[in-house]
Amino acid sequence: MQPSPALLVSVGAFGKDVARAAAGARFVHVDAIVDAETKPAADSKEPFRDIVSACERELSSLLDVTRYLESSSPTDPRGPRCDVFVVADLSEPGIGPIVAPLSAALATSLRRSFSPILRSGDGALVVCPVLVCPRSGDRVIMARALAALADVARNRSPSARLGGRVYLVEDQSGKYILSRAELVRSFAAFLSALVLPAMRDDDRGARTLVEDDSDSPAFSTFACASLSFDYIALGRLAAARFGREILDLMRSPVDPAAIDIASLAAPLVPDRARLEADLAEPIPLVEFLSPPKIDVPTIDWDDDPESIVERKFGSIFRARTEALLGTFEDEVERFQMDKLSAALEQRGKACMERVLAELSERVAQLVAAGPTGHARALLALRDARTRARGHYDDVVRAVEAPELSERPTSPLSAKLAALAEAARLRPRPLRMKVLGAAASVVSAIVIGGMIVTALRIFALPYQPFFAPLLEVPNGPLGIALVPPIPFLLGAAVSVPSTNYRLWKHRKRHHNWVVQARDDLAQALERHVREDLMSHYERRLHHARLLWVQRILSRLIGHIEESISTLEAIRAVLAEADRSLRFEEADGHRALSAGGMLISSALHGAIVRPDDVDDVYADVRPPEPRAAAERWVQESLSEHPWVEAPFGAVPPLLEFCRRELSSLEDVSPFEQGESALHRAADDTVRRFLRRLFLKLSAPLELASKHAPSAAAPSRVLFAPPEARKLIDAVLSDGGFESGWDVRGLSPDRHAIVLVVARSGLPLEAIALARPEEP
Q1: Type and span of the H or E element at 287
Q2: Residue 470 burial (CB < 10 Å; 0-12/13-18/19+)?
Q3: Which of 47, 64, 401, 710 has the most CB atoms in a 10 Å sphere around its CB?
Q4: Is domain 6-220+696-707+760-768 annotated with CATH 3.40.50?
Q5: Of residues 70, 75, 86, 72, the one with CA closest to residue 27
Q6: Taking the complete model, does pTM exceed 0.90, yes or no?
């Protein structure tokens, strides 16, 4: 924040070069766009309206109450000091005739626009032309320009006076020739020193070099040399170099034999069994489809074949069962399978997203594991790609050879035919009763005869077999020969025996029918719960295989993309390293140029190229690998790894600047043992000894006025930290009386030497007298 506004109005190419070289100083640059073709018309009422308006806009912003209160000291009652520096080359076409009227217009218009502050208030306005007059230019035009400037400076009215010195600088001094580059550097260094706050506000500072309170118009000239520590350039160089160290760690090769690639790759690819388990239905298929329970009638003992075949298992049972099966199959085909397919699609999409998300997460973890995490992730992904392709080929073979078949046919007809056959052979109860009675009678007669025959043979005295029994034999068995006792005994044996055999026969046929009925019930149950369920399960399994194939295909594609991205990351890191090499080279050039655009003999850098390595070693962190790990974590915390944020150069440079020791708060002129302090001590001594007697103001004076001209003032502006070192150099060379050392500079990184001569009347300047040789 500027304590008081300072505008640099650049006129022509030289003014722009000076403004560019002084970039970073406490100026607000206003470009006066004028040239030989577009110079303002002489009869125009306000020929510099655009330039003045631009300056008014900038001053309006800089004089805002918030800026003024924030930038001024609470104990300073003074108003703002507004300095306007007009920088131009009088030898450029069209520039000489407009410098004087432009300066006058700025002084008059700005005071009028801000009259309460700059005229009647506590503020002050100073317009200070700083002009270069190359000897190669048109001396007549430049002489006219000087005469016009003298006329403008002669105006001492409060509303129109310039209030500032008019500086003229030629490209030759009494000792050397100044190149355009040296002039640009000198102007930039001189103006940058004039606007430093402490030097600007102190009467012993640079104010005497800016303000001109003399009664008669006079010109001034200056020579300037500077020695600066461009901590920005060094920080830029160090950040680029440290960034390259981090990139070298990230680009270092990884030995595949040193890591267990299989353990890294296995979690990246799920196998077929896991995917099928993830895609399986959450509940058994039987529970979801809820197959119907077919009610098969029972067969009772007394059921005759006709009632079994026609009433219980007739056409009504067949139609009802076929309708029940058809309704179930139609419901499954038309509705339930669609629901299952939709649910499978949802699970498939969710599983695919989950698998891809897990892959992305695991790859991100591998990449973030360290500086070489991306290389380890690349090795793991290549192995995972091989695994995934193997699983994919297995699934493709299974899909191309599906275990599908036609829908199983119903066993109803065959089982009903078997039941009808068993029922047809089932004995009728009435027929069994008639045949059983006849068989019992015959068996009773036969058994009775057998009993009588056996008694007569074995138990009674011998008699002719065919002799009639005239009387009942004596003995306890004799009664058994008396009719109808033998027949009753035969009936007692034949009736139970016949009944048992008939019951057994009927039981066998009954069991046959019952078994046929049970076979029918079990066949229908198997058909519904096993055959149909297996058929639908095989179809669903094939659909799951198709989803597994799709998931693995997407997974392989995602792995291929990740591999391509990781391979591209190496190219990104290589490109970042190349950019950092250029950045480091630019830092070297900027450091060698002392913070200006180009190198110069009068404007040097404290840190020389030979000192860079030692200074860098002091500010570099001791553990680059730890810093590289922090960089990887930090870059991946805000951006995904696929964007290769750790290869972005601007964030990497910002990270490196934070990791490096701060150079902004370090003054190279302090006493210390660091490489920076040693380099500063040596450079300052050599620089000052070389220039103390050589620096001279480049403006030729007329021969008759040269002896009476005031001696130049020699001022050295330095930060307080450098005072001890400068006094030592002055004492060693015997220069104490020749230079006025002012330790007022708030710039802790620069020393500025100024040789200025003021109070030069127009006639004392040789350039103003072009007729003289």
Answers
A1: helix 285-289
A2: exposed
A3: 47
A4: yes
A5: 86
A6: no
